[in-house]
Design brief:
Layout lengths: L21 H11 L5 E2 L14 H9 L14 H13 L10 E4 L1 H13 L5 E6 L3 H9 L3 E6 L10 H6 L5 E7 L11 H14 L2 E5 L23 E7 L12 E7 L5 H13 L5 H4 L2 H6 L5 H4 L4 H14 L4 E3 L7 E6 L9 H12 L1 E2 L1 E2 L10 E5 L4 H16 L3
Parallel strand pairs: 1-11, 3-4, 3-5, 5-6, 6-7
Antiparallel strand pairs: 2-8, 7-8, 9-10, 10-13, 12-13
Helix pairs in contact: 1-13, 4-5, 4-8, 12-14, 13-14
Length: 405
């Protein structure tokens, strides 16, 4: 008798993460066959020569003797205290270390925060395009992701009217990703205030993903959501991965602010879930205080002449010179969300383009529909490579698209 296959959970049917999915696996296969692949699917600074500040590495090394036992489930005191001081310096009041959770990157904290909040069939408003972990984590924790439109013709800012119309009695929270991944949009004060007003009026939790908080360009202003959301429950997410180029340290934090009294049961749920996983990576936590208390080394990189600025500028310039591509200028983060010219509609969608670009031109990008969009004519690249590499990438993209033009 042949035994039946062991099936996976049905909940995974609603989970997508193509950033590290089929195309990424195919790229690995091509590399094993000897091809050199330029991988632009993930914002991973260490792979492109960016180093974690030395002071952070030393802080971790010098405290290794204190990093062997489990720590408190919320994290070590110096790390949580440093996060509180940062929040206070930004104008966020009423936060103590009791409202700060340290996790294995923001990814784990997103999962814990949704698990502590959602009941089966609860709804969460998530941007489209989104960072797909948010939609996946909602589904994995029994909820339903309801996407609100952030269209390119509106600078990828949220459609506030559509967002309000999407609210139902089952809606529990609004996810805001600012600066945005994948679009690079940086939300203005008016937009953020409107979202806060919606959360206040409908008694919703604000989940503000701010992992790219200091990575802004050309005078764009990053405004912390917690400085505006004083009457509702706000949960802010950030970490060491992007601004401090320490992805492998796996250190993120989540901070409760606003109406803390109303969040007491929610916070208790997070404490319980944090205790069940014992604690997050301890060695990396010792770098937090040094990171947040030191010179913000991201600034020279995002100013004119800095590497991140210059690479982004080449992407902008090459797209402007192309007859095949369009780009809404990214004002933050480390990505560009490019659109194929409308003449490719019906001929080449994002999946087919990304597949051909990988197989024949050895460049790996993320199809736009991977970010939970209703359209299939965008793709995302990271702007982390040096300018010479970006020029090579665009030469190959133009060659690939040229055969269809």
């Amino acid at each position: 008798m042949v035994n039946p296959l062991v099936s996976s959970s049905e909940v995974l049917q609603d989970v997508r993460y193509e950033i590290r999915g089929r195309l990424a696996n195919h790229a690995l296969e091509l590399e094993k066959r000897g091809y050199e692949i330029i991988s632009l699917n993930i914002g991973n600074p260490g792979l492109f020569g960016f180093r974690t500040p030395e002071a952070m590495r030393l802080a971790m090394i010098e405290n290794l003797d204190q990093a062997e036992p489990y720590c408190h489930q919320k994290g070590i005191f110096p790390a949580r205290e440093a996060v509180v001081i940062q929040q206070q310096s930004r104008g966020v009041t009423g936060v103590t270390i009791e409202e700060v959770f340290i996790g294995n990157g923001v990814s784990e904290l997103i999962d814990l925060s949704l698990r502590a909040l959602l009941n089966p069939s609860d709804e969460v408003l998530v941007p489209s395009p989104d960072y797909p972990l948010w939609s996946a984590a909602v589904a994995l924790n029994g909820g339903k992701a309801v996407h609100y439109r952030c269209a390119s013709d509106n600078g990828f800012l949220p459609d506030l009217e559509q967002m309000e119309n999407a609210i139902t009695p089952k809606t529990r929270a609004i996810v805001v990703i600012n600066p945005n991944n994948p679009s690079g949009a940086v939300y203005d004060r008016e937009t953020l205030m409107a979202i806060v007003e919606l959360a206040d009026r409908h008694n919703l939790v604000l989940l503000s993903d701010e992992i790219y908080d200091q990575m802004v360009y050309d005078g764009a202003e990053f405004i912390p959501m917690a400085t505006l959301a004083t009457n509702c429950v706000c949960l802010t997410f950030s970490g060491l991965s992007k601004i401090y180029r320490a992805c492998g340290y796996r250190v993120g934090w989540a901070v409760f602010s606003g109406d803390i009294d109303r969040a007491s049961q929610y916070i208790h749920g997070m404490e319980l879930l944090s205790a069940l996983r014992l604690c997050s990576n301890v060695p990396g936590q010792w770098a937090v205080q040094t990171a947040l208390g030191g010179i913000q080394s991201i600034q020279p990189l995002v100013e004119p002449g800095g590497r991140l600025y210059q690479s982004r500028q080449v992407v902008i310039d090459r797209t402007a010179a192309s007859d095949d591509l369009h780009l809404e200028r990214p004002m933050g983060a480390m990505y560009a969300f490019l659109r194929l010219h409308e003449r490719f509609r019906g001929i080449l969608d994002d999946q087919a383009f990304a597949t051909e670009l990988l197989e024949n031109y050895h460049v790996l990008v993320a199809p736009g529909s991977s970010f939970n969009t209703p359209y299939s004519d965008h793709f995302r690249i990271t702007t982390l490579p040096d300018t010479d590499t970006i020029d090579i990438v665009f030469d190959r993209i133009e060659e690939c698209l040229g055969q269809y033009s």
